[in-house]
Amino acid sequence: MIEIHFDEASEAEKLFWLLNKRKQDACPLFHAAYDGRKTVAVYIHGEEKHVLEEHIIPAMTAFVRRVVEDRLLLSIISDVFYFRDVEEQQQILALAHSFLEGERRDYRKGGEFAASRAVLLRSAFASFLRDGLSFSFSSFVTFRLKSYMERLQHYVELAIDEYKLEQEYQNFVQMLRDCLATRTPQWPRLYLVHDPPHFLFYDSSRRELSMAEVKQMIDRHLVFSQPMYIDSSVLAPLISLAPAEIELYTDHPDDGMVQTMQNVFQERLRLRRRADFAHLFIANAGNREES
């Protein structure tokens, strides 16, 4: 018999359920018992090594991944990095999931880990579990899952870095919105054509503006008075002009600058396909010929 003691009855019950799911394919090799409180017992009837490797360890690994992992991540976020606000914790947890899913490539090292979290868990259980053992699950996590916990902490660190960058970005966007709200529109409409990586400016008559003309539009006081850097090729002239309407023609709506402009200018900005700008010129040329 293997006896496992939990701190929470809910976790004991969930492990018992997962073991019973496994038993459907393994009866009569083992059976599990739950005392209704905080202890699960596993009785092995078949060949011990086979039952452990094929049934008990996979069930225990699934239990950690599905039931325990989020609790461990939250404990790292709270107790190691001192994020105590519940909303912040949930945002960091969601970002951590984006790295955990599929053991995503580690962008800091430029490669993947040699072993997945599942492999780390299976290895820890395989070196520990045996018939006749009685143990505390929380102690097992503390003393036997160090490599796994280090992996989780690594992903939490990445998530926190991402969270801080997102916070900085949101502050930047809000600062630009605040600047925009205080300015009187200088132009009724401005056209932007996205020619990656550049953005071409056209006035309300659809005349292309040179780079020198664009730079002349920048309000220097606006740029120097702000605590954050404002891009001088696109955002600074746009905020300075504060046009009432912007028509942005692009084939790359997911481009970072395009999304920033949407976030800042919101209902003032309308997104169009790049080809629509050429059609606009053709239509205007036809109208001039008819007149």
Number of helices: 11
Class of secondary structure makeup: alpha/beta
Calculate the mean pLDDT score and round it: 90
| Topology, number of strands | 8
Describe the global form. elongated
Sheet of most strands: 4 strands, mixed
Which range best describes the helical content: under 10%, 10-25%, 25-40%, 40-55%, 55-70% or over 70%? 55-70%
* Percent of residues in beta strands: 5-15%
End-to-end CA span: 95 Å
In words, what does this structure look like?
The N and C termini lie far apart (95 Å). The chain has helices at 9-26, 48-80, 86-100, 117-126, 137-144, 146-181, 211-216, 220-225, 235-241, 256-265, 274-290; strands at residues 2-5, 30-34, 39-44, 134-136, 189-195, 198-202, 245-249, 269-272. 23% of the residues are buried. The protein is elongated. The chain has 2 domains: 2-176, no CATH class; 183-290, no CATH class. It is built from 11 helices and 8 strands. It is α/β, with parallel strands linked by helices and 291 residues long.
